[in-house]
Design brief:
The complex is a heterotetramer, with two copies of chain A (325 residues) and two copies of chain B (404 residues). Chain A is an alpha/beta fold and 325 residues long. Chain A is 36% helix and 20% strand. Chain A folds into two domains: 182 residues, Thiamin diphosphate (ThDP)-binding fold, Pyr/PP domains (Rossmann fold, 3-Layer(aba) Sandwich); 127 residues, Rossmann fold (3-Layer(aba) Sandwich). A seven-stranded mixed beta sheet of chain A has the order 3-2-4-5-7-6-12, sandwiched between helices. In chain A, strands 9-11-10-13-14 form a five-stranded mixed beta sheet, with helices on both faces. A two-stranded antiparallel ribbon of chain A has the order 1-8. In chain A, strand 2, helix 2 and strand 3 form a beta-alpha-beta unit. The longest helix of chain A is centred in the first third of the chain and has 15 residues. Chain A is globular, with a radius of gyration of 19 Å. Chain A starts with a strand and ends with a helix. In chain B, strand 8, helix 7 and strand 9 form a beta-alpha-beta unit. Chain B is built from twelve helices and nine strands. In chain B, helix 2 crosses helix 7. Chain B is globular. Classes of the chains: A alpha/beta (325), B alpha/beta (404). Chains B and D meet through strand 1, strand 2, helix 6, strand 8 and helix 7 of B and strand 1, strand 2, helix 6, strand 8 and helix 7 of D. The complex binds thiamine diphosphate (TPP) (2 copies) and magnesium ion (2 copies). One thiamine diphosphate sits at the interface of chains B and C. Chains B, D: This is 2-oxoisovalerate dehydrogenase subunit alpha.
Chain lengths: 325, 404, 325, 404
């Protein structure tokens, strides 16, 4: 099996999707001949022509408006937003339009073909505007699906599934793993399920839930914890909405403890939703308060980024606190 | 870029270098302007247009009255703008896509949306294609290539660019026409849409109904320029301004625009100068922001009257037919309204379907919980209870007293 | 003391603020001579002139962009978004700009003078786009304050405080109470504190938390519950961010039970944040799972609005379930 | 509205009816065009401008080199656009507000931002006005009336309209100039900003640097029109296109624009035609999307060279001075860089201050928790630990092994 980094896996997924179906189009700022500022769309214009892979003018609300129309028409647009931090000008098109298109028309029209790709997350010295993790905004929006892969294998399988999913999907790519994360990725077409979490490690004492780049951080914390004799069960949510409540609940019923981690600020982050749901469904089984290890309630900083981030040490400490409760 | 000449003194252009003329064919008395040539429009086609205009007018009058009587929660009229909307629609292929703002029921009428279909939407009953989820006037028809209305303004404009781009790739010779008001044209989405259409050479017609107002805001507080038309220069896009109350001019202009779009992949901007004769909506009272005199002046430019005179002159219509037609339409509206009002609401399940292609487990749980709750308090949720199992009847246990 | 409805109280607050300080400006769509589609800005243009109260072109991103600039300049803009459902085109200006203005400049510049008013909420047969409660989107955005009044008295005092607050405030007005809610409102200037919840009813068995129009619904539920002998403590959060954790926690430590209600969809709604925080801070005191009574995870419907809404009966049932746990 | 004429045939305007000339004064050899008149610009004023241009060029070259050496995380050059940015700034009152995109460090240089000030921001140290919170090049100065840069494109454009509206009300005769790229001009915020400025007659100058590219996207894929200038017609706004590498033309045009803005409350659009000679940023390599030949052609139009020749011709500058000046600036840059690099980071508290005017209780709790944590693992957070109480030193208990 070839080894790919995450960008290659994404590029490969796009290539497969475009080769298979003429209706798949890739576009966004600098996506065309240049292949995107991260090169996720490299060579696609060469291969599939300018009408199927192209630069757009610099206007995110237009990119998504255009993509909504294309999807309604029956095409399968894969629109790139250059950084997740710049998705907000398109917020109205996503939240009021994409998310409600099928519902409001009674299923006369839908934009299920739409996939929105955007690099998200910190750890690259990007400051306020090249580091954000905006998944919680979209998670509060019925009608959208939100998917985040943790490694190249997941990225390819989940992206192919997203493109072919009958609903619009926002696909957030952990950009600090773009080149840093490599792994074996099958050359051929495959899909991984949307809406299903994955238990990446089984354990008995505490359940750790995360997604995307945070999975790697969790793994480092788990190494520390296991050395202290704590047995951790680790779950990669993979899909933020609709999230796989049952898998998380099942695990917490077993371990009695839950820690959730994300880079986004604490208040109103998606960990809150998981905590609120789990405390309800596992009330009698919880042995300690559900812990959230997240970014601070501030804009994303630069010089003190390391201090800001929910790193393995903070998770490790929170694991210990939970066990010691 | 065609930048050619140099200047050596700092002379500003102010936009007064050119002016945008208005394309007109038909005078208010029903005769053509000197030198004007009517577009080819046979008797049947002309009557189809006029009939849609009258039907729209009648529907609007009746439904606004129904709203006033409390039978309907909300309504919006097309009154005064029928020629703009229907003239444009008639110049299209019936399979061309239409993305409207909300005041374009005339387009649906022209394409054959039945009164029943209108009424089912207006009353949000079980037959509403939109399953009773949106406010009245949010029509949509897949069959008639009319995208379901969405209230956020201008969002449909870049969508039209995208849809038309897809049509171009599909290569079936269709285009998209998107309607919007001069107010909505201030939104950022307008700029995005026109620019992208010009860059990507998309077969889309941007049809601006400049009716002088955005709710209470007069166009003079909406933009400083001479209307919306000059914006086309900023995108290098073909543009024409047309008298929006002149059915022949609107028809001819849109026909020509469609040729540019479909045959040359040239997007076009049409600005139709018209006037909203009625209130913005049933929630609005225009006496607070404009004069009766102004309204009267525009009432004299009524597009229906103008077309009727032209038809009469050609012997294609008569006062007799007008009377009959109006009466028949009024009767039909009333009958269909009664039918629609009586129909049950959409089923309770419609609350959670279509959020996604398939109902998610979480939504199914929410629906189940809701059903249990409604079974407990059926009289508190008459619409929801109605659609639950027919054998459920209001219980009368201790818990129920809150349901009154 | 005169009786006012909520619109009159808001109009009165704006009048006082404009009379007191030349730098206060009110603008938005139809806000000028017409006085706003709900007439919240009636007569302000007459009184203070067209340069201080005016119509804007129809462009929410422009309204807030313009307002951000004005606030940075030192003016005190009160910008109206005609319906909260139409705030999303301005999402980028609010989330990436308003919220981060002070932080990113190291306090060289700030837009603290800015207040954004928007009618929110359902119950008026408004369907998807005249009914939304978007507070949770903004609650996940450090740098913003979000305030929601429950009645005319609160509306006036909180709006005056918001206008004068040193931070930007989004002021969501429960439009179904605009005319329906009336009460005594002092003619003179007064402020109510931002960031402080109010215990509107003391009780022993369960704590009920809400805000805005939902407070009235809670009251109806409490009437039913009290008849069944349940003693309810009711808290109006009033400020969503920064929210008054201590008051809620203190109450739950006493009652041992918590129910939170809002109209917005369940997933990722602000109730999740409250539940997540309270389960952590009151873990050993909770006698039953924290309950959330909210809108469904769907766009806001029309015909079945009554079925969708978290009404007094649903709250009453949830109270009973909590007590019976 | 000035709609006057009628037409009776459906003739479209296509924007080819007019063309936008380019205002030029100075030829590349440093002499004026025939018939061109240089703006009034004395020796000192001219030297101040040129000095800022050279200092900007030197800073850019050195800092890009520093970035390549890994001393700096990120950098962006103004190279090639110095005349556009500095010429415009020089034509303003020093107390006029400037809202820049990110490539306008020249404006700050002209107004007297010191190398130390630049460096402190670039290294995000304790003296950075922005407290180390934003990426390099996100400068701001309240003293110099230069709004702190924000990365989201075009957001500053409507902000400029609002700021200038406030200036108009304040009545102190100031205006705002907002810089942006031709790429950013595609954003919805651009449309909002220009329209609102025209409607509300705001003293704002919209200064578009049309440098041909938005990262890799050439302007031909950004818009179909002849540049950005014709958009002004859509707002009835004064507009001028200027050779952006011609310091005298930029200066004269901006002076005239400022008069329109401040004396007549007329917003103005200036489109400066220029070229980004360097990469988009330190993360970019332009060889992937444009030819060396194209770059070379523009290098010959270097705005510094052109101005230098003009200065030399007038005896206001010499090659000797040039050499000295460059050397001195290079030395200064290196020295200040060393100083700035050595300075400690901003204190840990700066993570939570300025989110609100006052630190909220919740943020204080988060900070306290963080401090406790950092005290536990000081070696894992060298910057944070450095600013905690000086008596804290790395502990060495059992828990610490994860900190390595
Ligand atoms: C994004 C958005 N902002 C505000 C509104 C509220 N609104 C509904 S109609 C309207 C005026 C629209 O005017 P115009 O576009 O000229 O169309 P007309 O009503 O004149 O046909 C406004 C402000 C909305 N629906 N969507
Ligand atoms: C809203 C937003 N979208 C995308 C970006 C990413 N981005 C940064 S610079 C840039 C190109 C800008 O081009 P232009 O406006 O022409 O300015 P130039 O770099 O040429 O000076 C892009 C796409 C951003 N910063 N903000
Ligand atoms: Mg209008
Ligand atoms: Mg550029």
């Amino acid at each position: 099996m070839p080894t790919m980094n995450m960008l290659q896996a994404i590029n490969n997924a796009l290539d497969i999707a475009m080769a298979e179906d003429d209706k798949v189009l890739c576009f966004g700022e600098d996506v065309g001949s240049f292949g995107g500022v991260f090169r996720a769309t490299s060579h696609l214009q060469e291969k599939y022509g300018r009408s199927r892979c192209f630069n757009t003018p610099l206007v995110e609300q237009g990119i998504i408006g255009f993509a909504n129309g294309l999807a309604a028409q029956g095409s399968v647009p894969v629109a790139e937003i250059q950084f997740a931090d710049y998705i907000y000008p398109a917020f109205d098109q996503i939240v009021n339009e994409t998310a409600k298109f099928r519902y409001r028309s009674g299923d006369l029209f839908n934009v299920g073909g739409l996939t929105i790709r955007a690099p998200y997350g910190g750890g690259i010295a990007g400051g306020h505007y090249h580091s954000q993790s905006p998944e919680a905004y979209f998670a509060h929006t019925p009608g959208l699906k939100v998917v985040v892969p943790r490694d190249p294998y997941q990225a390819k399988g989940l992206l192919l599934a997203s493109i072919r999913d009958a609903d619009p999907v926002i696909f957030f790519e952990p950009k600090r793993l773009y080149r840093a994360s490599t792994g074996e990725v099958p050359e051929e077409d495959y899909q991984l399920p949307i809406g299903e979490a994955e238990v990446t490690r089984e354990g008995a004492d505490i359940t750790l839930v995360g997604w995307g780049a945070q999975m790697e951080v969790i793994e480092r914390a788990v190494e520390l914890a296991e050395k202290e004799g704590v047995s951790c069960e680790v779950i990669d949510l993979r899909t933020i909405v609709p999230w796989d409540e049952d898998s998380v609940v099942e695990s917490v019923l077993k371990t009695g403890r839950l820690l959730i981690t994300h880079e986004a600020p604490l208040t109103g982050g998606f960990a809150a939703e998981i905590a609120a749901t789990v405390q309800e469904r596992c009330f009698l089984y919880l042995e300690s308060p559900i812990a959230r290890v997240t970014g601070l309630d501030t804009p994303f900083p630069l010089t003190l980024e390391k201090e800001y981030l929910p790193d393995h040490l903070k998770i490790f400490e929170a694991i210990k606190a939970s066990l010691a409760f | 870029m065609t930048t050619t000449t140099d200047i050596h003194s700092p002379d500003f252009l102010a936009g007064d270098e050119f002016s945008i003329p208005t394309f007109r064919l038909l005078q208010q008395d029903g005769t053509l302007f000197d030198g004007a040539v009517a577009p080819e429009l046979g008797r049947d086609a002309a009557r189809r247009i006029y009939h849609a205009m009258v039907a729209t007018r009648v529907l609007d009058e009746r439904m606004m009255a129904a709203q006033r009587q409390g039978r309907l929660s909300f309504y919006m009229q097309c009154t005064g703008e029928e020629a703009a909307v229907i003239g444009a629609t008639a110049a299209l292929d019936d399979a061309d896509m239409i993305m409207a703002q909300y005041r374009e029921q005339g387009a649906l009428m022209y394409r054959g949306f039945s009164f029943d279909e209108f009424m089912n939407q207006l009353f949000g009953n079980e037959l509403d294609y939109g399953k009773g989820r949106q406010m009245p006037i949010h029509y949509g028809s897949r069959k008639l290539h009319y995208l379901t209305i969405s209230s956020p303004l201008a969002t449909q404009i870049p969508q039209a660019t995208g849809f038309a781009y897809g049509q171009k790739l599909a290569g079936e010779g269709q285009c998209t026409t998107v309607f919007f008001g001069e107010g909505a044209a201030s939104e950022g989405d307008f700029h995005a849409a026109l620019n992208m259409a010009a860059v990507h050479q998309v077969p889309v017609i941007f049809f601006c109904r400049n009716n002088g107002y955005a709710i209470s805001t007069p166009s003079i507080e909406q933009f400083a320029a001479d209307g919306v038309a000059p914006r086309a220069f900023g995108y290098r896009m073909h543009v024409i301004r047309v008298d929006g109350n002149d059915i022949l001019a609107v028809y001819a202009a849109t026909q020509a625009a469609r040729r540019l779009a479909v045959e040359h992949n040239q997007p076009v901007l049409i600005e139709a100068m018209t006037y909203r004769l009625a209130a913005h909506s049933s929630s609005d009272d225009p006496s607070g922001y404009r004069s009766k005199k102004e309204e009267e002046a525009w009432r004299e430019k009524d597009p229906l009257l103008r077309m009727r005179r032209w038809l009469n002159d050609r012997g294609w219509w008569s006062d007799e037919e007008e009377r009959e037609c109006q009466e028949r339409l009024r009767r039909e509206v009333l009958e269909t309204m009664k039918r629609a009002q009586k129909r049950p609401p959409p089923p309770l399940d419609s609350l959670v379907t279509d959020v996604y292609a398939d109902v998610t487990p979480a939504l199914q749980r929410q629906l189940d919980t809701l059903k249990t709750h409604i079974r407990r308090y059926p009289e508190a949720y008459p619409k929801g209870a109605m659609s639950l199992d027919p054998d459920v009847s209001p219980r009368d246990d201790a818990d129920d007293k809150g349901g009154a």
